[in-house]
Design brief:
Order of helices and strands of chain B: HHEEHHHHHHHHHHHHHH
Oligomer: heterodimer
CATH architecture of chain A: Orthogonal Bundle
Largest sheet of chain B: 2 strands, antiparallel
Low-confidence stretches of chain B: none
CATH class of chain A: Mainly Alpha
Number of helices of chain B: 16
Mean pLDDT of chain B: 90
CATH superfamily of the largest domain in chain B: MetI-like
Number of domains of chain A: 1
Shape of chain A: globular
Number of domains of chain B: 2
Mean pLDDT of chain A: 90
Number of helices of chain A: 13
CATH class of the largest domain in chain B: Mainly Alpha
Chain lengths: ~270, ~300
């Protein structure tokens, strides 16, 4: 009896909180399918006919920028995984003077906030002739992701069975073979986590491309969102459709890789 | 001797594996960092004017009203952010945790974190639309309820702008905080809940005596993370109000950005960055010394 009475406020509160959380996205979705006319007469509900054409209009405007972002984010992920896994392997497998210092040097970078080095980074990229290029949008974010990734990978590599690596040593396998054939294949979970953290960060990057690009050639989709326009009839529906299209790849990633996604965002926040 | 020989046979390879990361970090983080520190002692427009001015930038900064306005604003963001993050997401996490049907629990977990999956700029632009003066969702809602007199240009008026920014993401659940609390609750041994049941605790007693003490470390972590994040508020303000109206919502990071890129006062901007960095560093030290130590004592 008591239990059933308690269930009402319990689920009632949950339902209310969930509704409030999702309400903006509901509004985004239904409004993205309307023309101005429909939005005026029916602001809150689903209005028919559904104007899927808003999506095709928006997609035409942002498709090249989605391509840019996909390329940039993927390159950041590949770069971070390569340099961080090599560094983590160095820390776990070898013993050389200065090892601890190098590790601290990498870790302490996590303390340096992005805005502090924004201006010198901009001047540097300008000097290297990398403004308005893909490289200019790949390397600085890569440097940001690498410290955290090295830390995560080092921790993971330390947990790999020592006997396996020793056996490989006995067999006379070289470092390259041990790294590529044993360590990397066994570390796919942490690589997935690192990849997701950096893909998300790459997709979300706003300030850096705002500073390091102008014009359309290499512009990422996040910067293109504010320039999406529909005609008088279409109104803001087209813009909102563009917001949803640009979110779609991340939603897809979340659906196919929920677990590493959640562990990625939490470890990304906590920084180890 | 044999040690040196062994070192040269194998261990030196360790340096080679470190080479790529230090090339990237050296170029794109260490050099810019040292330049940022150096530049804060220069009068510099990023191009031809470059003159060493000692501590002038800092002296000027501590007489700059806009800088104090920005500190006040991050004060508001930080206090309200901490209050928010310590309450609503915790409530939601406890409620989700006590859903006994596992499938439903998982489903709730996934739906609550949807805002985390959407690009942050899309979230800000969506809330910009919600707060818009004409045809904004919030104003439409108020009109629907017959409260026309309550409508505002939320982001454009000096009284409402900063609180509108605080309200973005209402009810503030869809974030990492919620997941951290949930993970903390999940790690509480289930026997303790059995005992609580046998003791006849009601939900509130269980929360106060059992759950809250056992997620204490998560609560501390959330507090530290929230403070650090709020002090650095930048993108959300840039997109939503660009610091306005006037300096009602400006933050130090945004002020740095404006000074650096709109006014080409790159030396002064670097000084702002350095001061903010030192504040953060001090807070981190305080955290390491006090907050982490108390954990060890109990």
């Amino acid at each position: 009896m008591n239990k059933k009475l308690l269930a009402v406020p319990h689920f009632g509160t949950l339902a209310l909180l969930l509704a409030l959380t999702l309400f903006p996205f509901y509004m985004l979705l239904v409004s993205s399918l309307k023309y101005t006319e429909q939005a005026i007469h029916n602001f809150w509900g689903v209005a028919f006919p559904l104007h899927l054409d808003n999506y095709s209009v928006a997609f035409k405007q942002i498709a090249p920028f989605i391509g840019n972002t996909a390329l940039i984010s993927t390159a950041i992920v590949v770069g971070v995984v390569i340099i961080s896994s090599l560094a983590a392997y160095s820390f776990v497998r070898f013993d050389y003077p200065g090892k601890q210092l190098f590790f601290v040097l990498i870790l302490s970078l996590m303390m340096i906030p992005g805005y502090l080095i924004l201006i010198p980074q901009f001047l540097l990229v300008q000097k290297l002739d990398m403004l308005n290029t893909y490289q200019g949008q790949i390397f600085p974010p890569m440097a940001f992701g690498a410290a955290m990734a090295t830390f995560l990978m080092k921790t993971f590599f330390e947990g790999l069975p020592k006997s396996l690596l020793e056996a490989a040593d006995m067999e006379g396998a070289g470092e390259r073979q041990i790294f590529l054939r044993i360590v990397i294949p066994l570390s796919l979970p942490i690589i997935a986590t690192v990849a997701i953290i950096n893909f998300l960060a790459g997709w979300n990057n706003y300030i850096w491309p705002l500073v390091a690009t102008n014009g359309d050639a290499v512009k990422p989709v996040i910067l293109a969102l504010s320039t999406i326009t529909g005609n008088m009839d279409q109104g803001i529906g087209v813009k909102l459709a563009g917001y949803i299209i640009s979110s779609f790849p991340l939603l897809l990633l979340f659906i196919v890789a929920t677990k590493p996604f959640i562990s990625g965002v939490t470890s990304g926040a906590v920084k180890g | 001797m044999t040690n040196t020989a062994r070192f040269f046979r194998r261990q030196w390879k360790g340096y080679i594996f470190l080479l790529p990361i230090f090339l990237v970090l050296g170029t794109f983080k260490y050099i810019p960092f040292f330049n940022a520190v150096k530049m804060s002692f220069y009068d510099w427009n990023g191009a031809n004017v470059k003159e060493f001015v000692g501590f002038d930038n800092f002296v000027r900064l501590f007489q700059d009203d806009t800088f104090y306005a920005s500190l006040k604003n991050i004060g508001i963001f930080t206090v309200s952010g901490v209050l928010i993050q310590l309450t609503v997401p915790l409530l939601a996490a406890v409620l989700v945790f006590h859903v006994k049907q596992l499938r439903l629990q998982n489903l709730l977990k996934v739906w609550f974190v949807v805002p985390l999956v959407i690009p942050s700029i899309v979230i800000y632009l969506t809330w910009q639309w919600i707060f818009a003066g004409e045809y904004g969702v919030l104003n439409q809602l108020l009109e629907q309820l017959g409260l026309e007199s309550w409508t505002h240009a939320w982001l454009g008026e000096s009284k409402t702008a900063i609180w509108s920014i605080v309200f973005v993401n209402f009810p503030w659940i869809g974030g990492i905080t919620f997941l951290l609390y949930l993970a903390g609750l999940m790690s509480i041994p289930s026997e303790l809940f059995e005992v609580a049941k046998l003791d006849g605790m009601n939900a509130w007693q269980r929360f106060i005596r059992l759950e809250l003490p056992l997620v204490r470390s998560q609560v501390k972590l959330v507090m530290v993370l929230t403070i650090i994040n709020q002090i650095q508020s930048f993108e959300n303000v840039l997109v939503l109000t660009n610091g306005g109206p006037g300096d009602k919502t400006i933050t130090p990071a945004l002020y740095l950005y404006t000074k650096g890129f709109s006014y080409s006062e790159m030396g002064y901007a670097s000084a702002i960055g350095l001061v903010l960095f030192i504040i953060l560093l001090l807070l981190t030290l305080i955290n390491n010394k006090f907050v982490k130590n108390t954990d060890k004592i109990d």
